[in-house]
UniProtKB/TrEMBL annotation:
Pfam families: APH. Residues 47-251 form the Aminoglycoside phosphotransferase domain. InterPro entries: Aminoglycoside_PTrfase, Kinase-like_dom_sf. It comes from the Bacteria. It comes from Anoxybacillus andreesenii. This is Aminoglycoside phosphotransferase domain-containing protein. Signal peptide: none annotated.
Length: 337
């Protein structure tokens, strides 16, 4: 197949070499040298992730690049083990190329099955989605609890306290910029919540080691995929680590609370999360304003604080929801007294 015969779609992306048509052309040529079947189309989805379409029946696959061959092999092994252990709600890696791994311009590419998405996209806005996502996450934890010993030497131990300390330190460093957008009193309030949370987390002993599983580590809405037949899938295991299952639920709670108007009652209605609300360590973690710190640190790190499109949602999190968040923090203080 000549280049002129290829159909290439280049989506608008962040400034990135992978959004460049010349890169796509080189990648297409490389893939067609390696595959037994011809690639008809490449569509960039996000950094180092592409939708590829074969010339035969236009069958689609996902092509994903990793920074090292060991990281690619870990993902191939882990997803295969998930399937073998009974967790079918995720993708499988495919063997389409003669060379493995596919090494191209300092990235190592794996090919995954394409799960046709539903037009009814999964979001945390809907109550039924929030509950269904938790049920799927619980099923994932039950499965990875059986795999945790197998990956004891492959995966790092999850260290949330150290992560939050670093995030806290970065936020403090960025305050001179943040003060251009957020009044000093609100910033000081968030800092007081963070200090209270970290102080109590440091003084709290570890929870039951029997709850140790392989954490997903990134339970954002975009890592839950609704397929065209209505099945919900859990995807993207780049941040897996070994830790207490409560850490995934803590992150999930933090992600959905803005859609619950920071209502403790709304959170307690979720059956999977409800038992953790009696755990002081979980509540101390809920008090830490991790999303505020994460988003401001990212905004400043990427020098996007002059971009109103990027700043607006962070301001909504920080200022628009401040009153609700303050009430939520007061509720946590009462419950942990």
């Amino acid at each position: 197949m000549e280049w002129a015969e290829c159909q290439i779609i280049v989506m608008t992306m962040k400034t990135n070499v992978q959004g460049d048509a010349f890169f796509i052309k080189r990648l297409l040529s490389f893939l067609n040298d390696q595959f037994d079947i011809r690639i008809h189309r490449i569509m960039p989805l996000r950094n180092h992730v592409f939708l590829i379409e074969t010339a035969v029946n236009h069958k689609p696959y996902i092509l994903k690049g990793f920074s090292s061959p060991s990281k690619l092999r870990l993902q191939e092994m882990f997803t295969a083990d998930l399937k073998k252990a009974g967790f079918s709600n995720t993708y499988s890696f495919q063997a389409l190329a003669a060379q493995s791994p596919l090494s191209f311009e300092n990235r190592y590419y794996g090919i995954m099955e394409y799960i046709p998405p539903s037009t009814n996209t999964f979001t945390f806005l809907e109550r039924t989605n929030r509950a269904e996502g938790l049920t799927l996450l619980q099923k994932y934890h039950e499965t990875t609890g059986m795999l945790v010993n197998r990956y004891a030497t492959e995966l790092a131990q999850h260290q949330p306290l150290e992560k939050w300390k670093k995030r806290n330190a970065s936020f403090i460093k960025n305050i001179p910029v943040i003060e251009f957008f957020v009044q000093k009193e609100i910033i000081e309030e968030y800092m007081s919540w963070a200090n209270w949370s970290l102080e109590h987390l440091e003084a709290t002993p570890p929870s039951n080691p029997e709850s140790t599983i392989i954490l997903h580590g990134d339970v954002a809405h975009h890592n839950f995929l609704r397929s065209v037949d209505g099945t919900l899938y859990l995807i993207d295991f780049d941040l897996i680590s070994i830790g207490e299952q409560s850490q995934d639920y803590l992150q999930y709670a933090n992600r959905i609370l803005p859609f619950l108007d920071w209502s403790f009652e709304g959170l307690s209605e979720l059956e999977v999360i409800r038992p953790f609300l009696n755990d002081k360590k979980f509540l101390y973690g809920l008090a830490f304003p991790t999303d505020i710190f994460r988003e401001w640190n990212r905004l400043i790190r990427e020098r996007q604080y002059h971009n109103p499109v990027r700043v607006r949602p962070v301001m909504e999190l920080t200022v628009g929801q401040f009153a609700e968040r303050k009430s939520f923090f007061k509720e946590i203080r009462k419950l942990t007294m």
